[in-house]
Amino acid sequence: MAIHNVQQIIERMKDRDFDIRIMAISDVSNTLKDTTESLPRDDGKVLAAALTNALSDNQSQVQNNAMECLGVLFKFISTEIMNATVTKICDNIGDKKLADRRTTLSATLRSVLNRLPDTIDDNEAIAQMSEPVCTVLTKHKDELSSEVKVDLVDTVSTILVRAGEGLGTNANLASKVQDVLLGMLESDMVSVRKRAIVALGKFIIHVPDQYSDEALQFIMQRYSTSNNDVEASNYLRVLVTIARQKPLRIAHLLSQILERELSIVDSAEGERRVTSLMALETAVSHSPELIGSKLDRIYTAGITAISFDPNYNYDADEDDDADEDDEFEDEFEDDFDDGIYEDDEDDSWSVRLGAVKLLAALEQSNLTDANKLLSKVGDSLIKRFKEREDVVRSEVLVTYAILLDVIKKVIKPHDEQGMDVENGLVEAVEQQAQQVVSTLLATIKTHPKSTETKQLAFAILARLVGISPSQVADTLSASESFGILQSASTRLVNANLKLDVLELLSQLFERHQITPELFRFIAAVSALVSKNFASTVFQVPSTSLTVAKKLVIALRASADEHGTDISSAVGWVRQSARDVLSLVYSNDQAVRTGAIEFASTAVKCFGDLIGSDVLGLCLATLAARDKSSALAATSIRALANGCCTADACELLKLGDIKSLTAGLELVKSLANYGDAGLAGNPNGALDEVLGVVGRHATATPPVSLALLTIIMPLASEDEVQRSIGVINKTLSSSAVHDPQTTTELCGLFETVGRHYPAVVEGWRASLFRSWSSTYSECAALRSYQNSTSTQFTYPENSLSSTSKCLYALYSGLFRAQGVAWSSDHLAEIVANLMLALRTLGIAATHGTLPADNELIKQLDVHLGSSHEDVRTEAALALGNYVGKYPDVFGDLFTSAVASDAKYQGSRIQAVKTATDVIVRTSTDSATIDSVWQCLLQFVLGAQETVPDLIPQSLAIFGLVYPEKYLPQIATSTGSPNAVAAIASITAFRRDTIWATRTSSIRRLTLLLLYSVAQNKPSQLSGLVKGFEPALYKQTEVDESLIRIITMGPFKKRVDDGLDARKIAFQCVYMLVRNIPDEVTPDETAAVVARGIDDEADILGTTRLIVKELLVLSPSSLLLRLDSVAEAVTKLVGKKLTGTALRQEHESLRENTLSSFVLFVTLERLAKKSSSLLAKGMTKDGAYEKLRTTISTRGDDKTVIMYEHATETVDKTA
Q1: Are 1099 and 1155 in contact (CB under 8 A)?
Q2: 1062 is a domain residue
Q3: Least confident segment among 383-397, 412-426, 1027-1041, 1142-1156
Q4: Cβ distance 82 to 74 under 8 Å?
Q5: Is 342 left (phi over 0), alpha (psi -120 to 50) or beta?
Q6: How many domains does the chain have?
Q7: What is the H or E stretch that residue 1046 is in?
Q8: Band of the pLDDT at 279, cuts 50, 70, 90?
């Protein structure tokens, strides 16, 4: 890859106008991002030098762009140039004249080396980059700011991680890096020392042992002998860093380190003690197998340190607590700091924090059993719940929650196996539970405004409920604890805190029976739960509804199983059920579902106790809701338990379809309980539902037909016989049935055939009369209009539905009688030949007909009928039959291609139908392939025109199995047999493939067309006009293939049809370039305007199309100048959001520039052809609007880009 005019770009980077400098760097960056090819060495060298100089530009945006571009450039240049660039940047950092640029330069160095491509495997060259970095750190260590030193030390760390092995070949450089990092460890800047500790750890981990051993020995020696706490802490932190990343590297030293730290940890002070605890924690977490006999001493160190608080008297707090008011209501009004005494010079909190982390590591290490953890660690943590420092208190609470999780893992397997937990672990938790709850309540009281404390406290309580629900329930039932739960309803309380409180209640109601004590607690807290139904805080309403539902279930269970008197809770249930009904219309789906589930649960559990008025409101709300949006079947059945059939049937008289559908669902739920559910009057219910069907014959609710299927087996035979007249209305030719309606109809007819054999004949006769009447009307209309197309648009629905219902009717009858299907049955029961043939085809599709050569002969005779409708139905029936018995496909195909004109069309139609059935339903790949070979060999050997249905049959293979068969069709397009080539091309351009909703199939089809148009365009001669409209349709944006992906606060627009659209534009270009005489210039020009308003790649292809059209038909382009100008104007006016990424801004700028180039090209041509500009150049035309837009937007670079486009076109010309 070569970047054109590199020298010109370099000059633009030096331009006085910083906008031009920015655009020049962006051009290089965009070019590099769009390619994977290598860059010539000289180009890479000069660009690297220019970008390095740009880092010292006086404009920050230029610096930032240069930093970004340099990172991209490093993917394309040699390590030699990289080293030179790194050296130059380091030299500039040391240059006092550029002192104010040092921060940018060091940040660039760190960023660029962090993004080194993984493909670079020259570790020695990468390691060499550390040399200039170490040099500048050594020579200018007193001049550099802490920010610059941090960047440079981080850069060394990056090099060590990436190419530490490379230092193994250069002992001097390894020694230099070691000395520099050890020097940085002595810095008086804390941030630099921290980075040096990390870098030294990486040096010892990644540099070969023979070079890093010296550093490790030096660090260990200084750590072991140092009497300075700060120095010892720094060296210990290096060892800790190594242990956390590669424990085996210092495993041989760990025992010595542990012994030293355990001997001083209790007596050490400040930072030294913190580091000591950190070392112990690291050993427990990363090398537990090496702890051995030191475990008890480590426990002691952690438990001793967690109570280290020499400057504070907790007993005084407890005395103060005794005098405080026990009211909690006002203590949850805000989340600000509680103003507790803090000593800025007291750093003992960091010791306690380190101790808590050590205990957390012990909990998760599996070094001791859960009983010992609970007794040793648990008691110590509980005592620190009232810790004065927020950060330490939070860590204490988290650590206790972890302890409960560890215990839960031990308890659960024993519970599942019905075993006693070892050593009475559950009992031990229960003994501690009361103290935990009481201490947590006291802690919340002591720190009433600490939201995090409350959240963690409730999280612990929720975990305790899972292990010891009784103890938690008994303690919370005390009246003085009620106040803390009022935080669940306080307006200003943190949302997560509310959710934690609600989760605690959820766990409590789900796991613990309602005792009298807990019932008193519930009486107080239930109002807080229902108060949150109307909260506007995310998740709080839906969670509170779930808690309320569990409370209702718990109340009902306690009353049924333990005889608890819950009468006092009925009022709350009634009022809550009334309150939630308004929420079933919420825009939040979770709230809608929660409201309906709560209402249905309340009705199910309390029934008539909630009052007839509330029950009526529930039913009315149910009737008004759209089932598809929220109503689950379980909720409907629950509501059905609370009403009677008479009430439900009243809903069937409602006028609107949504209410009617809800009523039908309700009656259906009642009908599922049998005759009792219908109050002993199934005939009455049948009449009500038939009334609905009769009133909505042209748009029958499918649920009404499903309901009839349930009711009819319960009704009398006379009622069933009379119902056929109403049902036949739904089979009228004016009704357009959706698949669900047809399915429900078939189920209904099958039920009647199975349960009422005596009425089958009457239903059959009614079906026949209905169909005959419909067909007679159609035939008369067709004769009057002299149009055969009426056959397929008017009676088809009726024929299809009637034949399916007829098949279902007799399927039910034959199933009840134990009789097998046969063609003889159809001859007896169906007097109309067309209805018989269609029903036979359905039976064949279902595989209910046995193999019968005589049947094939009979159907073959009907293929020669003088009646076109009969021929069509016979072909479909025979095709479906052969599709289920593919062994006879070869005989059918042979007879079809050898037939005379009288039979050939129908037989080939049967071949296509059979092919479709076999390809779509057969699971035998060998059978499918044999049918494929049969068709393909005929096409390849054809000497005369191939019937169009044969390529259509080939297209079926390409549609269902595109990966396997479309390439074979493409290969056949290059056949030396012209007839075969044309047939193959016809196959993959069938409308069925173009129109498929599967974007991958459309993409494969377009790829095939592109391949033919590029490599064998002559094969498309005479065919382009046939598929040209469909191809141009593919250049339009298909909105149905666009989806929005939500990623946190951001939304990304994904176009699944983009790949296929790109190929469609490329196909248009190939056709215009290779066979221009075959295309329609005016239609092709219309594609240009669409391409301007599309993605960048498509815009590039559009420019190529324009180039060809300028030669082929410039007038067609000029006549479209107005629409082109509209598209460009739209692009110029496009605004990006404030959160748009820089890449999006650059892409828009590039698209705008490219569209300007295209438009200026047409503008130049237009000025030479003034006679064609009557529309496009008028004052009110889009052309003039575009010119006005450009001239009035000079403040945002539009004019500059337009002028740049003009220069580009002029140079090209």
Answers
A1: yes
A2: no
A3: 412-426
A4: yes
A5: beta
A6: 1
A7: strand 1042-1047
A8: very high
Q: In which domain, by residue range, is 713 found?
A: 674-758
Amino acid identity of residue 750, one-letter, is: E
How far apart are the C-alpha atoms of 700 and 726, rounded to whole Å? Answer: 11
Type of residue numbered 267: S
**Burial, 565: exposed, middle or buried (Cβ in 10 Å; 0-12, 13-18, 19+)?**
exposed
Say if residues 810 and 829 touch (Cβ distance below 8 Å).
Answer: yes
SS (H, E, C) 698-765: HHCCHHHHHHHHHHHHHCCHHHHHHHHHHHHHCCCCCCCCCHHHHHHHHHHHHHHHHHCHHHHHHHHH
Q: How far is CA 499 from CA 258, 313, 450, in A?
A: 43, 34, 16
- Helix 612-624 × helix 633-640 angle, to 10°: 150
pLDDT tens for each residue of 145-182: 999 999 999 999 999 998 888 887 888 898 999 999 99
Q: Mind listing the pLDDT tens digit for each residue in 784-815?
A: 555 444 443 445 666 777 778 878 887 888 88
Helix (H) or strand (E) holding 811: helix 796-817
Which spans in 1042-1095 are helix H? 1058-1074, 1081-1092
Distances (CA, A) of 67 to 53, 324, 478: 11, 61, 65
β-pair partners for 1054: 1043
Q: Percentage of the chain surpassing pLDDT 70?
A: 69
Non-local (6+) Cβ contacts of 1000 within 8 A are 962
Whether 53 is in a domain gets the answer no
CA–CA distance, 1105 with 1102 (Å, rounded to integer): 5
Q: Which amino acid is at 346?
A: D
Range ranked top by mean pLDDT from 181-190, 447-456, 829-838, 1181-1190:
181-190
d(CA 1163, CA 1146): 25
Q: In this structure, are residues 670 and 640 in contact, taking their beta carbons and an 8 Å threshold?
A: yes
Domain assignment present for 718: yes
Asked whether residue 878 is assigned to any structural domain, the reply reads no
- Terminal CA-CA length for the chain: 25
Q: Are strands 1050-1055 and 1042-1047 parallel, antiparallel or unpaired?
A: antiparallel
Would you tell me the crossing angle of helices 270-286 and 229-245 to the nearest 10 degrees? 20
| 771 against 137, higher pLDDT | 137
Residue labelled with tokens 């666009």:
1042
Reply yes or no on whether the pLDDT at 633 is more than 60.
no
Instruction: Classify residue 414 by burial, with Cβ atoms within 10 Å: 0-12, 13-18, 19+.
Output: middle
Residue 412, classed as helix, strand or coil, is helix
How many CB atoms are closer than 10 A to CB 755?
17
3-class SS of residue 1043:
strand
